[in-house]
């Protein structure tokens, strides 16, 4: 393993971090850490990788093509990574397929130990991984380190679950037969992951896949490949054998098509947009692969008159502004009952005003940049549509003075259900507040969407909390809590928000086939 690490091409900084900061005055002014120390710590730990990983070997694109990775806070190019396509993906699939024959036979205890070691390494490099996430994704450093804890948690959890892949013995209705059920790994998994959680969306898929004995080809987002490569490096250091975990990136449609076309890939797992999820589902039909999809949401956050105002404000703030509003479970429609509406909007706006916007490495920052210009333009168009149809700007509603992809934390009141902002996923720091009169109306509004990922309710009425939680057509419901994601609970949506569950014991089922074995001629003498 050490030899492979040494042989690997070192990280190629297109604009080296310290000078990058020096050439970016605003960034240099705001940065509160030792940039030089930061870069060298990452290099020392072997965590700055700019090649893909195929069969345990770090690799460039076969035609030498590269793509640039940008820092969304400054627009600077951090480095380049290979721009791969069909050929490299096919080789990664072959490597995963070859590794499957041995990894699937490794004892569950051995698999568990490898995963546990990987977890330990992820945690011991929490700071460096957090810095890498902030660098390529933009989220504030504290939040980025929180993602490392969250993401590593999936590896720890599934290291334990590896030991619990139980089958069943079925009481036989026939005297001469014995019937049993085995759970076996599905095979090679294609894991396509998004940019908003560059680590956690990988570990949430790869943890259970590896625990079950599957091998994986990961395609991280081209916007945030560096965290994926660092995690892969740590997986190698943890003793996860070559070929068990492969990482390719570049031409998304070529890679996706190769994964879909290959009969060796037995499962596709994807987190991202509903539109892409539908295409993958259709594409997987050709070879009848298992599919799990974590797609877009349109989360209602319902604040009833009987809610504790402080709890509702704090919970809604977390549910809306986590990751600068860029999560699938972010509160998209804050629906407030008329008796508490004015008080809530007032208190919530005061809380939003306190959110400090800035570069993720700056002290005290709670809101980073959006991922790119297209994301800002989308937010702007949603706000324009809402205000043109009667929504009121209570706060923000414009780009932040920092420029680039920074947008002011925004509160819009008097939003109506037919506005785009209430129908589509905002994925930005804009809180849209709607008004309702009765519980029935709130439920009708909340369920009037094709999405069904997360919903939140704030109420002090126990009966109502049960009643409404049961009636909401969503995969996750937070009651008096806005931050509910955890490795120990199932994550996933209903309706067009997806298929399958990630995390928790249910997350294992997605990577297992059920085999029925019938033993005949078993009559006793
Ligand atoms: C996502 O936005 O896709 C994931 C959010 C979470 O894990 O809480």
Helix content: 40-55%
Radius of gyration: 24 Å
Unreliable spans: 1-35
Distance between the termini: 56 Å
CATH level 1 class label of the largest domain: Alpha Beta
Overall tally of structural domains: 2
Query: Order of strands side by side in the largest beta sheet?
Result: 14-15-16-13-12-17-18
Please identify, by name, the CATH architecture of the largest domain: 3-Layer(aba) Sandwich
Describe the main β-sheet briefly. 7 strands, mixed
- At the fold tier of CATH, the topology name of the largest domain is Aldehyde Dehydrogenase, Chain A, domain 1
Residue fraction in strands: 15-25%
Bound ligand species: succinic acid
Tally the helices. Answer: 19
Strand-pairing-aware structural class: alpha/beta
Number of strands: 20
What is the mean predicted local confidence, pLDDT? 93
Strand and helix map with partners:
Elements: H1 2-7, H2 17-22, H3 25-30, H4 35-44, E1 52-54, E2 57-59, E3 66-70, E4 77-82, H5 86-103, H6 108-124, H7 126-137, H8 141-161, E5 168-170, E6 178-185, E7 188-192, H9 200-212, E8 215-219, H10 225-237, E9 245-247, H11 252-261, E10 265-271, H12 274-284, E11 290-294, E12 299-303, H13 309-321, E13 331-337, H14 341-353, H15 373-388, E14 392-395, E15 410-413, H16 420-423, E16 430-436, H17 439-447, E17 454-458, H18 462-471, E18 476-479, E19 498-499, H19 506-509, E20 512-519
Parallel strand pairs: 7-8, 7-10, 8-9, 10-11, 12-13, 12-17, 13-16, 15-16, 17-18
Antiparallel strand pairs: 1-2, 3-4, 5-6, 6-20, 11-19, 14-15
